[in-house]
Amino acid sequence: MAGSSLNPLLGTSESSSLDSELLLPILPSDDTAVAARHQPRLKGRLYRNWTHNEQLFVRCCGVIISRATFFGSEGISSINSFLKATFPSHYPGSMPSYIFYDNNCQFLKHLRANEDHYWDSVGLPVDVFHFNCKHTVRDNFCQENCNPARFKELIGPDGKWVFNSSAAEQANVWFGKFQSVVQDMPVIRYNFFLDEMIAIRNREIVKELSAQHQSPHLLSEEFLRGTSLTSPII
Ligand SMILES: [Zn+2]
């Protein structure tokens, strides 16, 4: 949303953890910690869940552009479907330059295993926070393909990250607070409530971006369909 010629303001797709049992502690990035995280853990809970988690797609400016409810698990193939629904093929102009995702290394392996070329033009770095905390340096595939530092366009001349790759993480912290509110809502009210909260938050963020002269805007229908190269501010 915040204007940029790179069109990279594409946040991450991330579990929003409406289920608190999904929240993992921040672990040091050594192999022992990574291995320990993959050990099955028995956990009890004294409440019921109707859904597994909510997925959000968040622009790096903080604006949330799509949401999906996942039932059962945060499967990579489901993530792929969610992303394709967010950036459908009939809107080639919507295709992002980068997608930060905390599990992009597994996502990329999934794409290659299935010879899925939908995201070939998109950079798939892991967001900086998760890359430093949860991805081992011994994973050559991850280091070679998803290390955000390998995407030079993401680093400014001052050596700092150009984009806030933690925007989704920050949105999740906010979104997770609604867990107890929506826990037992019927499906229509559940969706209405969450979408309204997102819309209100988006309006506030756009207002703040405008005040900072960041030029938040919507892309035109023609630009999204690829029939126009110019994207007038709407
Ligand atoms: Zn990785």
Outline the secondary-structure elements.
Layout: E1 13-15, H1 31-37, E2 53-58, E3 64-70, H2 76-86, H3 104-113, H4 128-134, H5 140-146, H6 167-176, H7 179-182, H8 187-211, H9 221-225
Zinc ion (ZN) binds at residues 105, 126, 135, 139, 142, 146.
Q: How would you describe the overall organization of this protein?
A:
Helix 3 (104-113) crosses helix 5 (140-146). A hairpin with a 5-residue loop joins strand 2 and strand 3. This protein has helices at residues 31-37, 76-86, 104-113, 128-134, 140-146, 167-176, 179-182, 187-211, 221-225; strands at residues 13-15, 53-58, 64-70. With 234 residues, the protein is mostly helical. The structure holds zinc ion.
**Count of strand segments:** 3
Give the overall shape.
globular
Roughly what percent helix?
25-40%
Q: What is the strand arrangement across the widest sheet?
A: 1-2-3
Name the features.
234 residues; mainly alpha; 3-stranded antiparallel β-sheet; 9 helices; binds zinc ion
